[in-house]
C-alpha cells in the first residue's frame, strides 16, 4: 500500500529507463501514477510478474517491457487501458494464455508478445482491434487455429506467428477483404490444408512466409496476382504440382524459396523475367525435370541459385551473354546434368560457393578457376571430369592458388588421372578440407602438403599414389582426419605423424607400408579410429597402443605382426572392434 501511496502523487508522464541494468520487480504502484503516458523499461534485468495495476491505468499509451526476465501470467481480469497504443512484452518468460480482455484496449496499434512461453489459442477478440497495425506472437507455445477474421482488419500491416504450435488450415474469411497486410509470417507451425485460393485478396502483401508446416496441394495458378510480393517462402511443406508460370509476373519478387517440397515438372521459362530476383531455390524437390532455363542465368541481380537434389538434365547454359556479377552461391549438385563446366562461371567474381557434385559432367576442370577470388566451397566430386589431354600434372591446382579464401575442396570420384603438382601446398592457408578420393591420381604425395597448416581433413584414398608418406604431414597441427588407404604407398610410417595431437582418424590400410608401427602412436590421445590392415608391417605390436583408452576401432589384420595380446587389453574401455592380427 505504501508503494501505491508514494507513487500516486508523482506527476511523471514519460518514464524511460531502457537499456540499463535495473533488476528486481516492477513496483506495483507504477500503474497508479495519474499522469503516466509512457513506461519504457525494455532491455534491463527486471524479473517477477507484471503488476496488474499497469492494465488498470486509463491514461497509459505505451507499455514497453521487452527484453527483461519477467515471468508469470499476464493479467486475466478486465483491462482498463482505453488509451493504450503500444504493448511490447517481447522476449521475457511470460506464461499462460493471451487474455481475451486484450480486445478491450481498442486503440492498440502494436502488440508484441514474441519470445515468451504463452500458450493456448489466439483470442478471437484481437480481431476487434480496428486500429491494430502490427501483431507479433512468434516464438511462443500457442496452439489451435488462426482466426480467419484476423485478416479482415484494414489497419493490419504485419502479422508474425512463426515458431508456435498452431494447426488447422490457413483460411481467409469469405467475401471481400479490404486488406493492407504487407507481412504475413507463420512458418514453423503445424498448419495444414492448401494455400487458400482467395489469397489474391491480400493485394498489398510483400512477404509471405509459410515454410515448415504441413501445407499440401498446389501453389494457386493465379499466385501472380500478388503483384507487390517481394519474399515468398513455402519450403519444407508437402506442396505438390508444377511451378506456376504466373510467378514470372511478380516483377517485385526478390526471394523465392521452395526448398524441400514435392513439386514436379519443368522449371518455367517465365522465371527468367524476375529481374529483381536475389535468391531462387527449388532444391530437394526430386521430381523437377528438364533443363534449367537459360533466361535464369541472365538475371544479373541473382545472388543465390539452388536447384540441387532434383532430376534436372541437359547442359548448364553456356551462352557467352550470361552475366552473373552478383552471384555468390550456385548449387546444382545431385542432378543429371551433362556437358562441360561452362566458362562463364569463372567470370562470376563474387562467387563464394560452387556445388556441381553428383552429376554427369564431362570435360576438364577450367584452368581459370583462380578468377573466383572469393570462392570458399568448391564441390566437383562424383562426375566424369578428366585431366587435360597430354598433361601430366593436374594443372587446375595452379589456378586455385589465387583463391585465398578457399576452405573446402572436393574433386573425388571422377577420373581425373594425373599427378598432384607441388602448387597444392600453396593453396589458401584457410583451407580446411581437401577430398580427392578415387580420382585416378598417381605419382608421389608432394612434400608441400605440409604448408597447408589449417587443414582439418585430407582424404586421398583409393588412388594410385606411390612413394613414402611425407614427414611434412607432421606440420598439420590442426589435422583431425588423415585418409591415405588403398594406394601404393611404401616405406615406414614417419614418426612426424605422432605430432598430430588432434588426429581422430588415421586410415593407412591396403598399401605397401612396412617396418615398425611407431611406438609414439600411443601419444595420440584424441585418436579414435586406426586402420593399418593389409600392409607389410612386422615385428611386435607397440604396447602403447593397448593403453589408448579412447580408441574405438583398431584394425591391423593381414600384416606380419608378432607377439601376444597383453592381458591388460581391458584398459581399452572404449574399443568397439579389434581385428585380429596374424
Short description:
The protein has 582 residues and is mostly beta strands. Among the domains are: 1-142, Alpha-Beta Horseshoe (Leucine-rich repeat, LRR (right-handed beta-alpha superhelix)), CATH 3.80.10; 216-362, Alpha-Beta Horseshoe (Leucine-rich repeat, LRR (right-handed beta-alpha superhelix)), CATH 3.80.10.10. The chain is built from two helices and 43 strands.
List its traits.
582 residues, globular, single chain, Disease resistance R13L4/SHOC-2-like LRR domain-containing protein, 43 strands, 7-stranded parallel sheet, 2% helix, Leucine-rich repeat, LRR (right-handed beta-alpha superhelix), 24-stranded parallel sheet, membrane, 2 helices, mainly beta
Question: What are the SSEs and their pairings?
Answer:
Elements: H1 2-7, E1 14-16, E2 23-24, E3 38-40, E4 45-46, E5 62-64, E6 71-73, E7 86-88, E8 93-95, E9 110-112, E10 119-120, E11 134-136, E12 141-142, E13 158-160, E14 167-169, E15 183-185, E16 190-192, E17 207-209, E18 231-233, E19 255-257, E20 264-266, E21 279-281, E22 287-290, E23 304-306, E24 311-315, E25 329-331, E26 336-338, E27 353-355, E28 377-379, H2 396-400, E29 408-410, E30 418-419, E31 433-435, E32 441-444, E33 457-459, E34 464-467, E35 481-483, E36 488-491, E37 505-507, E38 512-515, E39 529-531, E40 536-540, E41 553-555, E42 560-562, E43 577-579
Parallel strand pairs: 1-3, 2-4, 3-5, 5-7, 6-8, 7-9, 9-11, 10-12, 11-13, 13-15, 14-16, 15-17, 17-18, 18-19, 19-21, 20-22, 21-23, 22-24, 23-25, 24-26, 25-27, 27-28, 28-29, 29-31, 30-32, 31-33, 32-34, 33-35, 34-36, 35-37, 36-38, 37-39, 38-40, 39-41, 40-42, 41-43
Domain Disease resistance R13L4/SHOC-2-like LRR: 179-282
Pfam family, one: LRR_1
Main location: membrane
